[in-house]
Amino acid sequence: MKVLIVGSGGREHAIAWKVAQSPKVDKIYCAPGNAGIEEYAECVNIGAMEFDKLVAFAKEKAIDLTVIGMDDPLVGGVVDAFEAEGLRVFGPRKNAAILEGSKAFSKDLMKKYNIPTAAYENFTDPQEALAYLETAKFPIVLKADGLALGKGVLICNTLEEAQDGVKEIMEDKKFGNAGNTMVIEEFMTGREVSVLTYVDGKTIKPMTSAQDHKRAKDGDQGLNTGGMGTFSPSPFYTEEVDAFCKAHIYQATVDAMAAEGREFKGIIFFGLMLTADGPKVLEYNARFGDPEAQVVLPRMKTDIIDVFEACIDGTLDQIDLEFEDNAAVCVVLASDGYPVSYQKGFPIKGLDTFKEKEGYYVFHAGTAKKDGQIVTNGGRVLGVVAKGDDLKQARANAYKAIDLVEFDNKYYRHDIGKAIDEA
User: Fold this and answer.
1) What is the CATH classification number for the domain harbouring 289?
2) Which segments constitute the ATP-grasp domain (predicted)?
3) Residue 420 pLDDT > 80, yes or no?
4) Residues 6+ apart with CB under 8 A from 185
5) In a shared domain, residues 293 and 385
6) Which residue, 186, 148, 185, is CA-closest to 168?
């Protein structure tokens, strides 16, 4: 098979690495890719939002399967563009990707179908939002409705903070048109857990659980980021929690989308909060998480091509989805100053050492090739991943592995997976 992967981050590197393990695959392309993905794929200079060029390339190269990694093209309708030309593509159509593309839509869906989530209201008028806040309990959560690179959520502890947040999202348009509509919802307390699932329109199969660390600094301080590290599995995601989610959240979401005439095929990422009243949905995503994919895919035993094809063909019920009985931790190496401003172009040393180490991986997020050298080219530069028999061992291994890589302005959190110690 010939496979095309669309995207350029650490998630797409992890997908390319996993796809390369399938005996069914002879050739991988990635558009636009990055310096790390080049090890497994031929990178093509086509942007993820250039649908016509992507479709033309897939036809020209007789691509057997295209895998969409990123949220923007999915929400924009890239799958519809491929299907219109009779091409096989993994990911939800535009009318299903709205599950991630509009937080207002997803909240209304959960309310209609009794899927547990936080109480909320949607607003299109900033004055109405401000009036609502006068009567609200704090802390409270403000969410830009559309895509905002994982950064469009503000947790406000006071009325003043919330008023500033409304101005930032709806009036100053910090997140562009994503802030035309805003969701205000109750602040939930508990443990956060991420569960990625494969979906074929009717059947849903959960992958192993994970937990992300969104804030830039140790102790969950600083600004929201795309993710500073992950661990898998979550010790807080018990068999009881799993049973509840399967009964009341996972299948219910797939059935709700089908009932709305929005058949979902691809990946539903459930961001969950384990509250005192049971698990509730924080948010949905319509693709692999980043950096969740970097800890989940290395633990997956099943051939990923078989799973992708079963999701497209509606035969997921015939797949035995298996994961290793171990653990993995990913620590993101970022450029100092991320997520605000940072310098690029610093040479990265030590990447080759990972090739000799079993159970250690480095996934490129923001890298490029310059004068034959791999250099930093983004805020999140690399995801250093290590496996272990359990979470504590995986965490120790990941932090040991960080020292193998060097670049100027290297920055990372020192407490990824620290919650493990409390489990």
Assistant:
1) 3.30.470.20
2) 107-313
3) no
4) 107, 117, 118, 119, 120, 121, 140, 141, 143
5) no
6) 148
pLDDT for the residue 423: 61
Indicate whether 202 and 170 sit together in one domain. Answer: no
pLDDT digits (tens, 9 = 90+) for 313-365: 999 999 999 999 999 999 999 999 999 999 999 999 999 988 878 899 999 99
% of the chain beyond a pLDDT of 70: 100
pLDDT at 234: 96
Q: At what angle do helices 159-166 and 126-133 cross, to 10 degrees?
A: 170
Between vectors from CA 228 to CA 223 and to CA 233, what angle results, nearest 5°? Answer: 130
Structure tokens at 371: 């004068």
User: Residue 333 is encoded by which pair of tokens?
Assistant: 């190496």
Closest C-alpha among 328, 329, 331 to residue 380: 331
| Residue numbers of the domain that contains 245 | 191-318
Do both 208 and 178 map to the same domain?
no
Q: 165-197: per-residue pLDDT in tens?
A: 999 999 999 999 999 999 999 999 999 999 999
DSSP 188: P
Peptide bond into 339 cis (omega under 30): yes
The Cα–Cα gap between 248 and 257 comes to 14
β pairing state of 221-224 and 153-156: unpaired
The domain total for the chain is 4
CATH of the domain at 160: 3.30.1490.20
Helices (H) and strands (E) in the chain, counts: 13, 22
- C-alpha–C-alpha distance, residues 44 and 322, integer Å: 32
pLDDT in tens, 296-315: 999 999 999 999 999 999 99
- 201 to 6, 44, 126, 419: CA distances (angstroms): 22, 31, 37, 35
Q: Within a domain: residue 114?
A: no
Answer yes or no: is 248 within a domain: yes
Residues 6+ positions from 74 with CB-CB distance below 8 Å: 68, 91, 92, 94, 97, 100, 101, 266, 286, 287
